[in-house]
Design goal:
By secondary structure, this protein is an alpha+beta fold. The chain is built from 8 helices and 14 strands.
Length: 437
């Protein structure tokens, strides 16, 4: 007996009423067995391969979390920081949010954890590393796999990178260093790196360094680099640091500036004391020692000139010239009343004549008029005769007198020069220290 169409409809309605409650059951609660079933379905039943990237071109997001600056060695141009990279990408093969694509409902499992042994990971390197140029890898750090297939991985480490130092304003300097990241093996058409535009460098957990102040950080996406004729995706993170001033101000700048003002003091030291020459040589040697100490702390580079080295060099030159001047002054002093050279006498007499003439004019203008309103001829003649007498009695310049004049002259010259170069030096480094980036 053939069944009618109405019978088929009735049977379908009965089956629907029975199956619908089963299909509408809530998802199973999380359990060890449920997660194991999900892992088996994703990695084994689907024949997942950790050597195959999920799509032809994978977008990889990278951010840096900076924990602390361990060291910035300006001389060796090395920056050492502790932190971790936050790397994320999408792998649709590890998604279970679509219940129609899985054998059962796994929506109560929010995340899975795995390692790079089982999951495909982008091959990245620290391009300017000086310690280890291998691909970033750590099988002990788990990856978090979300239900939508998004993967988060945060490998940590101590990154030692090269940092080109600017020593112009040492020791009140600021340095900008870069941590450069690039893909390895995968070209730009296979992996593209980009960063979080809001917080490319996270400093929430940053711990202060004893020598350097953290000023700022930023992310940069430079043009891709070519290696062997192939383009590779790159990005970099910049870290700007400023040296803390107290230690170097007290132990470097303060002694150097104080020593600078010792140079003009040699001209106030009496020649007959016998210490003039030894004093000059002591100051000269002290500056030579400080210059060598400063040179040991700055890199041997010609890209920038250290203002402190320049200041020490100029002061050292002043001190060297001063030694020669002191030798001549001592020589002149012990010539006693011997007549000075002809050129020195000519200059001396011209200066004395000018001074006498100026004094004579001043004295004439001070003559008091007589009661009748006429000039007192006696006062005028007396003033003129006194000036002529002074000119006639002008002594010839002797070596001893010349040594005294040179002492006074070079004290003023050296003190003025020392003050000027010190002010220029201090103003330059202080303005740079407090200037904004």
């Amino acid at each position: 007996m053939k069944r009618s169409f109405q019978d088929y409809l009735f049977t379908l309605a009965v089956l629907t009423s029975v199956v619908r409650p089963i299909l509408s059951l809530p998802p199973a609660n999380y359990s060890w067995g449920l997660e194991k079933a999900l892992r088996t379905e994703l990695f084994e039943n689907a024949n997942y391969s950790a050597f195959q990237r999920p799509v032809k071109k994978v977008d990889v997001k990278v951010a840096l979390t900076l924990l602390t600056v361990n060291e910035l060695n300006v001389r060796d141009q090395i920056l050492s920081v502790s932190g971790y990279l936050s790397i994320s990408w999408d792998d649709w093969r590890l998604s279970w949010s679509n219940t129609s694509a899985t054998s059962q409902d796994y929506s109560n499992i929010d995340s899975l954890f795995s390692t790079e042994v089982n999951v495909w990971t982008p091959a990245l390197i620290i391009e300017n590393s000086i310690h280890d140029m291998s691909v970033i890898s750590d099988i002990k750090i788990p990856m978090r796999i979300k239900s939508d297939g998004k993967i988060f991985w945060s490998p940590s480490g101590v990154y030692r990178v090269s940092c080109e130092s600017d020593i112009t304003y040492y020791p009140l300097d600021r340095q900008m260093c870069f941590i450069k990241i690039s893909t390895w093996g995968y070209t730009k058409s296979e992996i593209t790196l980009f960063m979080d535009e809001n917080t490319p460098v996270d400093t929430t957990f940053y711990s202060e360094n004893g020598e350097w102040d953290f000023l700022s950080s930023a992310g940069h996406t430079p043009s891709s680099q070519v290696r062997g004729g192939t383009w590779y995706s790159t990005l970099s993170f910049s870290i700007t640091l400023r040296r803390k001033p107290v230690y170097h101000a007290l132990n470097t700048l303060f002694p150097v500036i104080l020593m600078t003002f010792l140079i003009p003091m040699v001209y106030k030291l009496p020649t007959e004391s016998g210490e003039k020459m030894s004093y000059s040589l002591t100051v000269l040697l002290a500056y030579a020692v400080y210059l060598s100490l400063i040179s040991d702390n700055i890199p041997s580079t010609s890209k920038s000139v250290c203002l402190l080295s320049l200041y020490l060099g100029v002061t050292l030159a002043f001190s060297t010239v001063s030694v020669n001047i002191v030798i001549f002054i001592i020589y002149a002093y012990f010539q006693e009343e011997k007549k000075a050279p002809y050129w020195a006498n000519r200059i001396y007499k011209k200066i004395q004549t000018m001074r006498a003439k100026k004094k004579c004019d001043a004295d004439v203008n001070k003559v008091v008029p007589s009661i009748k309103g006429e000039k007192n001829d006696t006062d005028v003649l007396g003033t003129v005769s006194e000036s002529e007498q002074n000119n006639n009695e002008m002594n010839t310049l002797t070596y001893r007198r010349l040594s005294e004049i040179l002492d006074h002259l070079f004290f003023v010259v050296y003190l003025t020069a020392t003050i000027l170069i010190t002010i220029v030096f201090l103003v330059s480094i202080i303005i740079n220290f407090y200037s904004s980036d």
